[in-house]
Structures are given as structure tokens and as C-alpha cells.
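Input C-alpha cells:
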């Protein structure tokens, strides 16, 4: 790429994992001046007990950076997102996308990443959602594994990968089987197996073996890389028995159960080594091994270690996985093939008998698979595709404007239709009336000791001094008709005068003796009104009361009263009749009425959250 593009890489491994093409490509591009954000693996399966160590490491990596992002080289940043580890849960995916995009968006803005190229090794729905939000200049999918066959937990990824293949601008694949798979859904798939960084291997010589290898007797058969489930341990067990005087050395992290091999004195495990150290170990290897099982997964695998072995001039013995066979056809059979333990053991003995530990022709083959050439070829394709897309934009600018205009017109039409429909539903129908009905409760009247009339405050109208008159009138009517003997007005609201006192004065003016009226002027809301009234009930030893309030305030009142009135005291609910504020709710609802109804539902939810009901 002649211009230095910004690149976001969604990786299928973490930066600190075994060094592979993911890290090599991005570090190379960063050294060439491209700004890189390397997003560590966000998962293709749910975690297991054995993954606890990886989860702990992710937390450590997150803490090393700023909100999970750290700078490890010039132009190269690594993001270790902390996400819910359930890649196929819809709920987890929604939450993860919010968390993920929040951090990613801030970082893109802080570093002025605009229209970056996205290079992804992972096709999950979460990754694709992030890609859509990023809106990249170019989308590259590098297919390096048959992910749906890598584990039972990852089988659900198949459809996600198909979706990504159909969206991608460029698709690279590391094996011929993967090319065949990807070509079903993308017209142009390029073959780019992982290469080798020759700077770590060419012309390397050493005077003595590494300390942990020096104690292992020769001849040494060496394997480097992850010690995983795809190694044929049954085959290795038979070979170990057949060749007790040959040392078999596995160098790398143990990722599966190897207990079945315990007890073999000619088997050695050495922990993972940095890439720069591998040449030292390979230098003292007599032969190198690729003992993979033959499965649908390994038939899609191009072993990264192959070219590393060859770069050190080593003879390689491998099981007949497809990419090894194709490699042999391409390069005149440099790899010894062995399908059985007998063949493997015989081949080892035959090669050891030659007493040749360096093959110059192997080095020449490795040079043809160097990362420098691989990445150069990739960049050439990327540059061509970027240029082609830019030319298409320039060529079809008028068509694109028309498409954008039509899309905007459709959005405006849909939004307008929704607004009109919403207006009709909420302001010219009975929908608000029916929504409000669960809030309205009225019990049959029976004689009671007292009536509690709740003040209006700013009430449902939102205006001070409105609503209390109707409540006073209702309470006075109950008193005058003999349903109650006492009236209590409860309101801590003050507007010019205390509302509870104003309510009492109005009741006196309507003919109620002052001795039968009580006021409670501390309660600022329904909860406080009821709790203060409870103390009055206990003091006056009331057994039955009637509560008066606005029609659509009754449900909240009922819920609070049920929880906070004294045990042994029963209550009835009596809403005001012919509420002036709500008189048009059933025919022509107003915005203020809708607000009042929504406020009541919200208040009930809040009271539930606070434990008041």
C-alpha cells in the first residue's frame, strides 16, 4: 500500500500466545508505518475450567493498558477487551457489543482513526457488529482454520463465517481445503499460507545447546508449537516404544491432557520459548516432527512450524495431512511422509543413518515462503482492491447519491408514518384510557372511622394549587352522607400557604365542624403520607378508613397502604368522581394526561425498586 493505512485486526489469538501469522503480519505492517490496533481473541466458544489461566491473563493484560489498550511498539496497539465469555448468547452479545464499542469508539476518536482497513481472523456475530459500526474502507477475512471443526463449542460459528465471507472485500486462506470452502461464498479467494521470518533462522550457529536441551541425550526428534489435541498421541506412544534410545522433545505450551504418555523416559517437554530462541533449539535437533492426526480439521491445516524447520535446514517427518502432501508436490518431496508408527520409526532410523543434520535445499525452499514476500503480495492485492473501490465510488457518484437520497426518503416516510400513527393512537383513540385502567381502583363503600384525603401538590397537572379541591369535595361528601366520622387531610406541599391547611379551611367552609378535621402537613409524597397517617391511626385506634385521591393514583396508594398501614386496620379506596383533569382521557387524551399516566407507572416501578411496596 503506497499510503499508510490505519488497520484494525480482530485476532483469533492473544498477542502473547505462540507467535504466529497474526502477530507477524501486524508487527510487520506497523514497522512499515501503518497504525495498527490488534484486538485480542473475543472467543468462538464458551470457556471451560482449563481456560481459567487465560481469563486471569486477560484481566492482567486489561490492567496493563488504558481501558484495556496498551502500546507495545511504535504504531502498534493491543486491545484486551473484558467481555462476557458467551459468544452465542444473544443477551451476552448485546451487552458485549455495548461494552466493546464504547471502548473502541473512544480509542478510534482519540487517535483519529477514520475509515480504517479491518483485517479479521474471526467471523463471530460480535466481530461483524463491530465491523459494521467501524464502516471500514476495506474488509479482509483471513481464514486460517476450519473453525467449525476446531471444537464442539465452535460449531455454531459456521453461519457467521458464511455471512462474513459474503461481506468481505478480500479473502485469504492458508490451505487448499480452506480455499475450496471459502470459494463457495466468495468469488476471489487467495492462497496465503503462513510464512517464516527468516531473520530469526538464516545462518544461525551456536556453540552449545540451551541448558534445558543439553541434558537430553541425542539423537533428538524435535517438535515446536502448541501441544494440542491434534497431535497423534497414540502414534507417538507406539513410536516411543519402538525407539527407546531416541529422545523426543516437545517444545511449547501443553494445551491438552498428556498423562497417557507419562512414564516414557525418552519423552521430554520443554515450556514455550520466544520466537527468537527457537533457532537455538532447532540447531541441535537431529530431525523435526509434524505428527498430526488425520481429521477433517487437520486436513485444513498448514503447519506454521514447517517453514521454520526448513529455514534451519532440517529434515522433517510428518503424517500425510493434505497440505504436507501438496507441499511435497510443489517442492519436489522435501518432507518424509509416515502414516503409521512402523513407517515413522523406520523413517527416523533411516534418516539418522544418513548422519546429515543440515539440508541446504530445505533452506532454499523456506526462502520462497518468507513472510516478507507473503506480506508484499497481500499488500499488492489490498492496494488494488482499495484503488478499485475508490474508482467505483468516483465512477458511480451520481448513482450513489440517488441511492442515498432514496434511502433517506424512505427513512423520512417511515418516521413520518410512525409519528402520524403514534399521534392518532395516543391523542385520538382510547388506547391511553385502556393503558390507564389498571391504575384506577374503586372499592364498594361501607361505613368507616375516617377518611384520608391526600393532597394534590403539583399533582397530575404539574401545576400547583390544582386537584386538591376535588379531593376535599369527595371527602366532605363522604362525611356529610355519614360514611365517616372524621376527615384527615395529608399534604406537606406549600404554595403560598400549607396545602393541608387550605384543604381544612375549604372543608370548614363546606360545613364540616373543625373538631372533626385533622391535618398532617409533613408528608411530601404518597409513601410519607401513608406512613404518617399510620401513626394517626394507631393513636386514634382506627379500625377502618377510606382513602381519597386522584383516579389514577389509586394503584400506587393501594400498594403503599397494603405494606405500611397498621395490622388490623382495613382500608377502602375512593377516587374523586368526574376528575376535571382526566375528563377527556377516554375520547381526546392530552399530552399532560399521558405524562401523568406514565409518571404513575414510573413511580410504581421506583417504589418497587426502593422497597416501599
Amino acid at each position: 500500500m503506497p499510503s499508510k493505512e490505519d488497520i484494525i485486526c480482530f485476532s483469533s489469538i492473544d498477542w502473547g500466545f505462540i507467535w504466529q501469522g497474526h502477530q507477524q503480519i501486524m508487527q510487520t505492517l506497523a514497522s512499515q508505518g501503518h497504525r495498527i490496533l490488534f484486538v485480542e481473541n473475543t472467543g468462538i466458544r464458551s470457556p471451560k475450567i482449563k481456560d481459567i489461566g487465560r481469563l486471569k491473563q486477560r484481566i492482567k493484560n486489561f490492567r496493563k493498558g488504558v481501558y484495556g489498550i496498551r502500546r507495545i511498539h511504535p504504531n502498534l496497539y493491543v486491545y484486551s477487551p473484558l467481555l462476557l465469555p458467551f459468544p452465542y448468547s444473544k443477551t451476552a452479545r448485546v451487552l458485549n457489543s455495548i461494552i466493546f464499542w464504547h471502548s473502541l469508539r473512544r480509542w478510534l476518536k482519540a487517535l483519529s482513526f477514520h475509515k480504517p482497513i479491518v483485517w479479521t481472523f474471526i467471523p463471530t456475530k460480535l466481530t461483524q457488529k463491530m465491523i459494521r459500526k467501524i464502516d471500514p474502507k476495506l474488509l479482509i477475512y483471513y481464514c486460517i482454520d476450519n473453525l467449525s471443526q476446531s471444537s464442539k463449542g465452535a460449531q455454531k460459528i459456521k453461519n457467521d463465517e458464511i455471512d462474513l465471507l459474503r461481506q468481505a472485500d478480500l479473502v485469504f486462506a492458508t490451505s487448499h481445503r480452506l480455499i475450496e470452502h471459502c470459494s463457495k461464498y466468495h468469488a476471489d479467494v487467495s492462497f496465503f499460507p503462513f510464512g517464516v521470518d527468516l531473520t530469526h533462522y538464516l545462518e544461525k550457529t551456536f556453540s552449545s545447546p540451551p541448558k534445558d536441551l543439553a541434558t537430553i541425550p541425542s539423537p533428538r526428534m524435535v517438535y515446536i508449537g502448541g501441544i494440542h489435541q491434534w497431535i497423534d498421541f497414540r502414534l507417538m506412544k507406539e513410536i516411543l516404544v519402538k525407539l527407546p534410545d531416541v529422545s523426543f522433545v516437545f517444545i511449547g505450551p501443553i494445551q491438552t491432557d498428556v498423562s497417557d504418555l507419562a512414564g516414557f523416559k525418552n519423552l521430554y517437554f520443554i515450556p514455550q520459548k520466544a520466537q527468537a530462541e527457537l533457532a537455538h533449539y532447532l540447531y541441535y535437533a537431529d530431525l523435526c516432527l509434524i505428527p498430526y492426526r488425520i481429521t477433517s480439521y487437520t486436513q485444513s491445516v498448514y503447519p506454521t512450524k514447517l517453514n521454520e524447520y526448513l529455514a534451519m535446514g532440517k529434515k522433517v517427518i510428518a503424517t500425510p495431512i493434505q497440505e504436507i502432501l501438496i507441499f511435497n508436490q510443489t517442492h519436489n518431496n522435501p518432507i518424509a511422509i509416515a502414516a503409521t508408527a512402523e513407517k515413522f520409526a523406520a523413517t527416523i532410523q533411516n534418516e539418522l543413518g544418513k548422519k546429515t543434520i543440515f539440508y541446504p535445499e530445505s533452506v532454499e525452499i523456506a526462502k520462497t515462503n518468507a513472510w516478507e514476500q507473503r506480506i508484499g503480495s497481500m499488500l499488492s492485492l489490498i492496494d488494488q482492491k482499495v484503488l478499485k473501490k475508490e474508482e467505483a465510488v468516483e465512477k458511480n457518484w451520481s448513482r450513489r447519491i440517488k441511492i442515498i437520497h432514496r434511502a433517506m426518503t424512505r427513512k423520512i416516510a417511515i418516521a413520518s408514518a410512525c409519528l402520524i400513527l403514534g399521534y392518532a393512537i395516543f391523542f385520538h383513540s382510547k388506547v391511553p384510557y385502556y393503558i390507564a385502567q389498571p391504575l384506577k381502583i374503586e372499592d364498594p363503600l361501607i361505613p368507616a372511622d375516617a377518611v384520608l384525603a391526600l393532597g394534590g401538590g403539583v399533582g397530575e397537572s404539574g401545576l400547583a394549587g390544582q386537584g386538591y379541591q376535588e379531593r376535599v369535595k369527595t371527602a366532605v361528601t363522604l362525611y356529610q352522607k355519614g360514611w365517616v366520622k372524621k376527615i384527615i387531610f395529608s399534604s406537606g406541599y406549600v404554595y403560598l400557604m400549607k396545602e393541608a391547611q387550605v384543604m381544612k379551611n375549604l372543608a370548614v367552609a363546606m360545613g364540616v365542624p373543625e373538631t372533626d378535621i385533622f391535618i398532617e402537613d409533613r408528608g411530601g409524597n404518597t409513601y410519607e403520607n401513608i406512613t404518617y397517617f399510620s401513626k394517626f391511626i394507631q393513636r386514634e385506634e382506627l379500625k377502618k378508613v377510606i382513602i381519597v385521591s386522584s383516579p389514577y393514583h389509586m394503584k400506587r396508594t393501594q400498594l403503599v397502604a397494603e405494606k405500611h398501614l397498621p395490622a388490623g386496620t382495613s382500608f377502602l379506596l375512593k377516587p374523586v368522581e368526574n376528575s376535571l383533569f382526566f375528563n377527556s382521557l377516554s375520547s381526546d387524551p392530552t399530552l399532560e394526561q399521558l405524562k401523568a399516566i406514565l409518571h404513575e407507572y414510573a413511580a410504581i416501578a421506583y417504589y418497587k425498586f426502593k422497597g416501599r411496596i
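The two ends are 65 Å apart (CA to CA). The first strand starts at residue 6 and ends at 10.
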